[in-house]
């Protein structure tokens, strides 16, 4: 009996002791910070801000180029064509462009192939070189890489919404103008942004290495500019409301607006943007050859067909730009 009482006493003491033990404290909750989505790779503040008061070099008739080599010239009288001959011997035309300029050069979501107005301009050059528009190798470049790629012969030509400027003509050559764009602004409908004047102290997206960036820095010095590698990246950061607007050529903005019904192009033109095919400085024969292709597609209706295929969202065809020549 005494043993039973002792056992019950031990059990009761154990229960009481256990009931007095404090429950272990839960670990502290981790603080979670909710931030904006990360910017695209390569995005950030401008890296090539101009010197205060600086202006681009000036030149007479910046869009004038070399006249095409006349057709039907006898071989013994024809000027040498070393660059064209080298491209033909290789059997492929190497073209620099990007995949983020909707309407001009982008990946078809159904086929995964590069398509667009610039892509087809490049194919027309290949057609005249080889009799085959498919003999093209594309090299993907950012806007900031275009001039270097021409200078070191990484590519034969750049067909990438490249504006002809006096400053660029000091470094590379250009064809005649194959498309005339206008610098404007893209914003969210109802945002209160109705033109370039409304970009003061607002967040604006532009691509590094473009005339659009330099003009924005000059016209709206208080704008908070974020630069990205490609214009498709600007669309992403605008949709995420990490910027308030995009400012560049209306031809590029139209391609972005076509992907989002809540966006609209606003305001007057800041400046004309004449596009030319970029070519290495020493390759005069290739400049003349490309200008011959551009002459052909103006005459035979190909230019209008390409416009109707890719750019009809911008309205009816204005017709191909009239060429200017220096010789």
From TrEMBL:
Domain of life: Bacteria
Coiled coil: none
Ranges of residues in domain Solute-binding protein family 3/N-terminal: 92-314
InterPro entries, sorted: Bact_solute-bind_prot3, Solute-binding_3/MltF_N
Annotated signal sequence range: 1-22
Matching Pfam families: SBP_bac_3
Keywords from the UniProt entry: Signal, Transport
Annotated region (Disordered), positions in chain: 28-83
Protein family membership: Belongs to the bacterial solute-binding protein 3 family.
UniProt-recorded name of the protein: Transporter substrate-binding domain-containing protein
Native source species: Rhodococcus sovatensis
Lineage, opening ranks: Bacteria, Bacillati, Actinomycetota, Actinomycetes, Mycobacteriales
